[in-house]
Write a structure and sequence with these properties.
Elements: E1 4-7, H1 16-37, H2 43-54, H3 61-73, H4 79-94, H5 106-115, E2 119-123, H6 128-136, E3 149-151, H7 162-172, E4 179-183, H8 186-194, E5 198-202, E6 217-218
Parallel strand pairs: 1-2, 1-4, 2-3, 4-5, 5-6
Helix pairs in contact: 1-3, 1-4, 2-3, 2-4, 4-6, 7-8
Length: 227
């Protein structure tokens, strides 16, 4: 019996374009200035982590910005990039420049699952801070009360490794075979199944990832019957 549903965001609850064009664009435009203005404060751990990941210990803030923007443009799953994005985009959510965008089927189904007693969690490569804002500032109304918890690269690990899903199951506190995972990426579905979870692939028109056997693929959350 399913007790918890864990959801990916990009391509699963929300259009990939809304993440990559709006969040990425907002971050790209503001990242160099934010790094320069926040040295000696919140930018320092991000600069240090970027230097370490890039293997450039002497990179100045302009070079760090260049590295991070390149990672953003090539969709590298980098913890310092996601941390910077979370901080920078927090302003955009709060001033009305950014909103969480969701496929139309998602909000009513999430509400129905919560009403049925299921716990809902998010596991995304975006920072926990970005995830929370995405749901809290959703276009059409706050969805954050529906979500019991959030996981990202820093709290769970890479999304294509079974160990990350094992870590999440331990944090949630329910058996692996009581968790259902939904994602548009076949490798993530593979990793969740390898960790003992139930998992469905999500395929929607216009999204970049194609279905891959042997998993079941759905195109509407209403097609999922967790219990």
């Amino acid at each position: 019996m399913i007790k918890a549903v864990v959801l990916d965001i990009e391509g699963t609850t929300s259009p990939t374009s809304s993440v990559r064009e709006e969040l990425y664009g907002y971050t790209r435009d503001r990242l160099p200035g934010w790094l320069a203005e926040n040295q000696g404060g919140p930018a320092d751990p991000i600069i240090d982590a970027t230097r370490a990941q890039a293997g450039e210990p002497d990179a100045d803030d302009a070079r760090v910005a260049e590295i991070l923007i390149n990672w953003l443009n090539t969709d590298v799953k980098s913890e310092p990039l996601k941390a910077a994005q979370g901080i920078i985009c927090a302003e955009g959510f709060r001033n009305g420049s950014l909103h969480g965008e969701f496929f139309p089927d998602v909000p009513p189904v999430l509400r129905a699952w919560r009403d049925a007693g299921l716990e809902l969690y998010i596991y995304s490569s975006g920072s926990v801070r970005n995830q929370k804002d995405w749901f809290a500032f959703a276009r059409g109304g706050d969805l954050s009360p529906l979500i019991s918890g959030h996981f990202d690269l820093s709290t769970a690990g890479p999304k294509r490794e079974a160990s990350s899903y094992e870590k999440i199951a331990g944090a949630i506190g329910v058996p692996a075979d009581s968790i259902l995972f939904l994602s548009d990426h076949p490798d993530e579905v593979d990793a969740a199944v390898a960790a003992g979870w139930h998992a469905f692939g999500v395929t929607r028109p216009g999204e970049p990832n194609a279905p891959r056997p042997p998993h079941r693929w759905i195109s509407d959350f209403a097609d999922v019957e967790p219990n």
